[in-house]
Backbone:
């Protein structure tokens, strides 16, 4: 490597985390795709100093190795992440306050930043743009490759950026545990034990539970669309009460209700779906403050015996989740290799986003008159459907590829999911074979015929 990629500028080299491996492979197949490109946008209201932000970004580049990391594949096919000693951040500033339509320019910049591919082998894999919209209103836009940051890390990074901006240094922040400690910890895990567990867990599951598609397109083609489902305060209170009474978590309640809907789509009594785990229970000092990708995607298998109480199914899902936590640290490709379905094991993912973005400045004494607001985070994976629950904001988002999945079907999915959830949280004794009778709201769509409601 030439230039800044000389041996003298390399600080460390190590392997990828399980989810990073999957992202690298997908991005290698579709290098111009926006899969795993993530973007966060927020507004700084009040007095703003660009120099302070520059310094804050420099502090974070020095503090976190992952922000100076590039990704390569050796001639032998081994995937590696290379930490550079120095890397210049891509930071741009634009004054759009004098333009007749500043928001149009901001939208254009945001779209360009999102659609411009990252080069994993060169970096930097994060871009920062600041746009002045009015005299005391600035838009901060961070666009990055998901391969360096998961949601938990993004929250930590934003908090530290605002802290460094306000305080002029990183003094007072906890010492950051480097991401390599997580990689080392994974390397000490027994892959033989992981393999044995997933072989047993997936044994006998030979028919995938899929989302019906209406069109077939070339791999990598994606046109994002979403459908939002509100969860009002009454529903959230009933969900909380049910969780407390049945000693299960709201996450496992909604997950199991979705699994039930999926089982009806596929006329089966058991399903496997993909879920995202945070990986923040690893036995590493400072794991909560590590900036990097500790998250992973794993399969979850749910069985629905006809006469079982739904709360018992949910409890079983929760018990299995607790039992398999030590086996989360294996790449999805490796897990899939223990199933005859391989990459067809599941075709969508379920995410529970328990992050309060409006609290990102908590603990940072912002200067008088300064306000951080309008946090927006968006991005996607390569899956044609992502179901993300935002319990703190009280809604569910169905992000889908409208090139292959019909919008009417997505709306039917949302309606049936809420019917099932409502039926379950209103009757702790409801049985699996009674849920269909409790769901009384028919959905007017041709695609609803896929379901036995």
Residues:
């Amino acid at each position: 490597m030439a230039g800044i990629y000389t041996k003298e500028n390399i600080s460390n080299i190590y392997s990828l985390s399980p989810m990073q491996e999957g992202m690298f492979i997908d991005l290698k197949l579709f290098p111009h795709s926006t899969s795993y490109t993530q973007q966060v946008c927020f507004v700084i209201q009040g007095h703003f100093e660009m120099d302070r932000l520059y310094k804050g970004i420099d502090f974070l580049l020095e503090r976190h190795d992952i922000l100076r990391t590039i990704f390569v594949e050796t001639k032998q096919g081994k995937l590696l992440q290379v930490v550079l000693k120095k890397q210049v951040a891509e930071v741009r500033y634009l004054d759009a306050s004098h333009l007749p339509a500043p928001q149009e320019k901001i939208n254009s910049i945001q779209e360009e930043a999102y659609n411009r591919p990252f080069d994993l082998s060169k970096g930097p894999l994060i871009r920062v743009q600041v746009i002045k919209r009015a005299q005391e209103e600035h838009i901060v836009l961070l666009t990055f490759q998901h391969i360096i940051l998961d949601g938990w890390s993004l929250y930590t990074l934003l908090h530290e950026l605002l802290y460094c901006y306000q305080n002029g240094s990183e003094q007072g922040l906890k010492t950051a545990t480097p991401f390599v400690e997580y990689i080392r910890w994974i390397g000490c895990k027994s892959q033989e034990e992981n393999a044995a567990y997933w072989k047993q867990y997936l044994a006998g599951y030979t028919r995938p539970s899929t989302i019906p598609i209406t069109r077939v397109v070339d791999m990598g083609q994606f046109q994002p669309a979403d459908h939002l489902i509100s969860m009002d305060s009454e529903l959230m209170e009933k969900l909380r009460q049910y969780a407390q009474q049945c000693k299960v978590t709201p996450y496992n309640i909604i997950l199991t209700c979705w699994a039930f809907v999926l089982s009806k789509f596929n006329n089966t009594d058991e399903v496997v779906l993909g879920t995202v785990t945070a990986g923040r229970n690893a036995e590493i000092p400072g794991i909560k403050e590590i900036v990097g990708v500790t998250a992973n995607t794993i399969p979850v298998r749910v069985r629905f015996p006809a006469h079982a109480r739904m709360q018992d199914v949910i409890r079983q899902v929760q018990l299995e989740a607790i039992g398999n936590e030590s086996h989360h640290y294996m790449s999805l490709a490796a897990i899939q290799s223990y199933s005859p379905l391989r990459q067809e094991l599941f075709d969508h993912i379920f995410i529970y986003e328990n992050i309060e973005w409006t609290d990102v400045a908590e603990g940072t004494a912002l200067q008088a008159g300064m306000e951080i607001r309008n946090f927006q985070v968006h991005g996607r994976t390569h899956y044609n459907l992502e179901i993300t629950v935002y319990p703190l904001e009280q809604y569910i988002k169905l992000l889908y590829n409208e090139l292959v999945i019909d919008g009417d079907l997505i709306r039917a999915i949302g309606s049936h999911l809420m019917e099932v959830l409502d039926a379950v949280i209103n009757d702790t004794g409801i049985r699996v074979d009674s849920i269909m009778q409790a769901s009384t709201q028919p959905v007017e769509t041709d695609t609803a015929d896929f379901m036995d409601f």
Remarks:
- The chain is about 35% helix and 20% strand.
